[in-house]
Amino acid sequence: MQKFTLYNPVKYVFGPGTFSQMKSVLKPMGKYAAIVIGGDSVVKNGYLETLTNQLESLDRRYTVFKGIEPNPRTTTIDRIREAMSEDPPDLIIGLGGGSVMDAAKAVSISLDDISHSIWDYVYLGDPSTMKRPEKKIPTLLIPTLAATGSEFDPISVITNWEEHLKAAMFSELMFPNVSVVDPILTYSAGSELTACGGVDIITHITESYFLTPDHNPIQDGFTEILVKNIMAAVPACIKDPEDEQARSILSYASSLALSGFINAGRNRNFVMHAIEHSLSAHLDIAHGRGLALIMPSYLRYISPFNEDKLIRFSENVMGVDVDTPREKSIEQGIRLFEKWIGDIGISGGLSGYGAKKEMIPAYAEDVLRLKGGKDKALYVNEKLDAIGISEILYNSL
User: Do 272 and 384 belong together in one domain?
Assistant: First the structure.
């Protein structure tokens, strides 16, 4: 096991019904709340009213800031920052999916200086150019979808649509103060969002699993049992959107995935995410869907450099017989996972979402521009350059 330092200061409140009984959570958290939401779903489903009723019962003032889109745009976040600065809150509440929570965290550490765009805080390959936050406004996050794990980590992912770049900002100040995770709020997520969210969770906990050669019995065991539970829970939720047990599994797994506990002591090269972020920035494809469409090709590409982990995955997660020859075991496991992706409703290839063969070299160059560092490469236990990234993408079309 590798050395690691683990830090996570989030107060985490979990369970069905916790959202409608939040007064004890809200009471010490501020007198004026800025509530960040996406579109109309939290209004139609009554979630916003449930939240504001509790704030009003505590005699708390609030303002709602609407309009965060999937793959949240710099322009949208900057607009909300400017509006908030006219009457600064002492609490920011993110009520929605990962994009809403990412936006809420971004605003919380940048509201004191709106002369800078939120893009100035983003990592673009050189940490010396990032604007560093020095203070924050307390944040409360309430996820309505099990997917990104933003409720338990110090990261936000932002899209600059004008430059077709999607990149992360991060700081220990960006840990939310409190997250209330109520699986009942995810009942309203349709089958497509549920499926894409499940894939996102799986990649969060398998990126480092696949790329850490040494066997880490605790972390690898966590990963394998979580993936098996997620793969069972996603179709259960699609079949019955109000399956409380299955929804609870997905919600808790989503939070655990990026909490630091699962990936501690392993390589943290999030290569699939780096590649998919480039696709989202160009195609505006849903993040989980993009991951699902590239993952089989990615696993085939990395298998020669990571045979032991791919075989463990095939046998321990996908149920491939242990007596299957090594080379067949890996391919059989990937095909079974590919079938699961199709069974939950994610089919086709990237070309169906606007990806063009002639643009693939540009997508690959954008990946390395943001994540390639001085070597202009990623590492999958072997060097992964633009040619390798392009191969993965060509085979995902």
Answer: yes
Instruction: Supply the CATH number for residue 155's domain.
Output: 3.40.50.1970
Residues 196 and 130 in one domain: no
Name residues whose C-beta falls within 8 Å of residue 119's C-beta, 6 or more positions apart in sequence: 74, 158, 160
Which residues are CB-contacts of 139 (< 8 A; sequence separation ≥ 6)? 91, 92, 93, 94, 104, 105, 108, 176, 177, 178
Half-sphere exposure of 83 (CA within 13 A, CB side): 14
Last residue of a domain, one of 165, 185, 205: 185
Question: Do residues 176 and 266 share a domain?
Answer: no
Distance, CA of 351 to CA of 182 (rounded, Å)? 36
Choosing from 159, 185, 211, the residue where a domain stops is: 185
- CB-CB contact of 73 with 130 (8 Å): no
The pLDDT, as a whole number, for residue 198 is: 98
Distance CA 184, CA 248 (A): 8
The CATH number for 211's domain is 1.20.1090.10
The pLDDT, as a whole number, for residue 269 is 87
Same domain, residue pair 31 and 156: yes
Walking along the chain (397 residues) 10 residues at a time, the average pLDDT comes out as 91 98 96 97 98 98 97 96 96 98 97 94 88 95 98 97 94 97 98 98 97 91 97 98 98 97 91 96 93 98 95 97 94 98 96 95 94 90 96 97
Q: Are 35 and 66 in contact (CB under 8 A)?
A: no
Boundaries of domain holding 126: 11-185
Please give the pLDDT value at position 373: 85
State residue 375's pLDDT score: 86
Tokens of 118: 């939120």
199 closest CA partner among 99, 340, 357: 340
23 and 162: one domain?
yes
Model pLDDT, residue 327: 83
What are the C-alpha distances in Å from 255 to residues 33, 37, 42?
A: 24, 20, 20
